[in-house]
């Protein structure tokens, strides 16, 4: 006759349970600040370039420059968080982006420099996002808490993109492009301060054997050798491109309909 062993059942976990963890609460706030501030800056820079050049093409290029590094450099840069302390990665990504956005706020910059700075700012997002996602299980643990915390972070991030885009138009209309960029730099600074103040110092994760380049190459080979993974990757890029092109056309469209 076999004995029945008791099975531990994890209690239901709610959003307030994970938000009650101080480190996760700081991570969540840092994420919302970075994402919303970034959207405000995207709108501000697009309006800045359109006002200066009246060129739909250059305005679209400026907006695309804020996303293109994600597609091109994302797979490479995201791996940085696996080789360095994630707390440090988040802090330095925010500090560097804050400095770059402050440069963007300087009046009279040539358009090519504005686009270049926008692309450099965007390069800081993949390692920041990767470090943030990798930190979640360290902060809340595994199981349902991780699932709830991850769902909350991802859903709120998408909401912050939408709200930040709408907020960007209101902020730029009320305060102007320079003030909006200064606000964005401030959100990055606040995010870095939260990470530095509330996150514990943790050792970096154990990286995969081999060099950083070898690890990236192996990952790309796995994706593109599998038809299903390849289809998902290409489809994501196409949908991403369609979404970005629609958003990039917003400023010229509003201006053509007598918007301010």
Give an overview of the whole structure.
It contains 12 helices and no strands. Mean pLDDT is 79; it is low at 1-9. The protein has 260 residues and is an all-alpha fold. 78% of the residues lie in helices and 0% in strands.
Topology:
Blueprint: H1 15-19, H2 22-53, H3 56-65, H4 68-77, H5 86-104, H6 111-123, H7 125-140, H8 144-175, H9 177-198, H10 212-225, H11 227-248, H12 250-256
Helix pairs in contact: 2-3, 2-7, 2-8, 2-9, 3-6, 3-11, 4-6, 5-6, 5-7, 5-9, 7-8, 8-9, 10-11
| Number of separate structural domains | 1
pLDDT < 50 stretches: 1-9
Kindly report how far apart the N and C termini lie.
80 Å
- How confident is the prediction overall: mean pLDDT? 79
Structural class: mainly alpha
**CATH fold description:** Growth Hormone, Chain: A
The quaternary organization reads as: single chain
Largest sheet: none
Tags for this model:
260 residues; mainly alpha; 0% strand; Growth Hormone, Chain: A; 78% helix; disordered N terminus
Summarize the structure.
The protein is 78% helix and 0% strand.
